[in-house]
Structure formats: structure tokens, C-alpha cells
TrEMBL record:
Transmembrane segments: none annotated. InterPro entries: Beta-lactam/transpept-like, Beta-lactam_cat, Beta-lactam_class-A. It comes from Leifsonia poae. It comes from the Bacteria. Residues 1-31 are annotated as: Disordered. Keywords: Hydrolase. SUPFAM superfamilies: beta-lactamase/transpeptidase-like. This is Serine hydrolase. Residues 11-22 have a biased composition (Basic residues). One of its GO terms (molecular function) is beta-lactamase activity. Residues 52-274 form the Beta-lactamase class A catalytic domain. One of its GO terms (biological process) is beta-lactam antibiotic catabolic process.
Amino acid sequence: MTIQTQESERRSRHTAGRRGRHRGSDPSENFSRGFATLGQLALNGVQVSARATDLATGTVLFSVDDHVVMPTASIGKVLLLVEVAARLQTGQLSPLALIDRSPEDAVGDSGIWQHLQVPSLPVADLAALVGATSDNLATNVLLRRVGLEAVSARTEALGLTRTALLDLVRDHRGPDDAPQLSIGSANELTWLFSALARGEVVDPPTSQRVISWLSLNSDFSLVSSAFGLDPHSHRSAEHGILVVNKTGTDAGVRSEVGVLRGPRAGVTYAVSMYFDDATLPTRLAVIDGMRTVGLDLLEYVF
């Protein structure tokens, strides 16, 4: 209860609306490219939710329906990583404890463990795979070990009410399964990543572990495609730019949340799109829109 109260208060302070600031006082002017692109996507039937805040001050730089709960695909795996990191910190889990994969864990799509021969991996390595490649098999194995109920309880303790990991990763979702892997609001997701960056999620060592795993992420296909970084080698600043991010991709879903630091400022951002993924031009328009938001963010920090 104490943890929940403290984290809820921090989240409330961060998510409270404040006047935007970015080379001017009007966010609609300062992030004009992103606003225009997101507006056009919305007119074309794309459900859009986005938010960006200054990392140092919490000032809201721009927001578009940031309270709306959106499907976020693999973004919810961050909540699993928080629970794993917290258990490592308390000694409930050992980073070197080997966990076997089992037939019920099997799943395709993202990740590399499914293509490797090794039948078991240490907890810390599994978490690194989730951070680096959003590894679905590693996610399911870790989730089987810690339990979805524990992840949900941790999420509630953090004060998150519109963000959740709903299920394990499945190749096919039936009528009895959760309709989405995870959901989230841009408001809460920017709070979560800001709190991680400040060492305020559970405690500083736990936050740092999660940030370390996420810093391995190799997916720079969405918002972060605008930052000019090497997706396979970006743990040190290049041209003063440093990013830690997590993406979520599914049919009709594109989502990214991250912390971007530059020579002039730091910013936390979350952008989610939900759309009819029936044609390639529609998908490309969504991806291009997310990159446009990234260009505005880069200008703010650089």
C-alpha cells in the first residue's frame, strides 16, 4: 500500500497538465509537423494517442488524446521487466537461475531464442532478450516463472490504471483470450518511462536494471527512426543523442514509448496508432507519421 501511494502521487504530479515549452509557449506551433501529420491520420480513420513531456520539468510539450486506452502490443512487456527486476533486487530470483523453455511457451514472430538450440537460459539473459528484440519466447518463459498475477499486482502498485500486460504472447487469439497483449495510455506510459529514468520505479537499482535491458532495443523503425542512431549500437551517446525505448507492433497497431536525451534537453514520449491495416499505403502513412513526431522531438532536445 505504501508503494502504491508514493508511486501514485509521483504519477499524479507528472501527468498534471502544464503549459508547453519548446522554443515558444504554444505546443501546437512548436510541434506543428507532428500535430499536422497526426491530425491528417486521424481524419483518415487512424486512432491516435500521443504525449511528450520535458524530462527535467515534467512540462507537457504536446498531447493528443493521451488519456485514451490504446492497444500497445509489446509495450506491456516493460511491466514484466519491472517485476523481474524487482525480484532480482530482493533476491526472490537469481540472475543466473536457468529456466527451461517448454512446448506451451512456444510462439513465433519477434525474438531470436526460437531460432537457437539452447533449451534453457538464465533469468537475466531472458530479460536482456526481451529488451533487445522483444523476444516472445523469452517473454512467455519469464511470465510463466513470475506469473501474470504478480505483474498485474505490480502494475496496480505503481498506480497505473490504464496500462496493463493482459496475457502471454500467442500466435493466435481465440474468443476466450485477451483481445490484445497489452494496453496503455500515453499519459501513463510517459510517466512510467520518466519514473524509470529518474530511478523512481520500485527503487533506483530496479529502475536501472529495466533501463539497462531496454537500452539494448534494436527496433528503431517508428518514432526513433528520426534520431539517426545505430539500432544495434546506441548505448553511448552519438552526437549528444541517447535514447531508451520500447516498441509495440501488431496487425493494425504501432506504438512506441521512450526517453530521448540531447545536448539541450531530455524528453519522454509515447505515440500509439490503431488503424485498419488493410493496405500497405495505410501502414506506411502511420509509420511516416510516427517518424515525423520523432523529428519534432529531436529538434526539441538538439
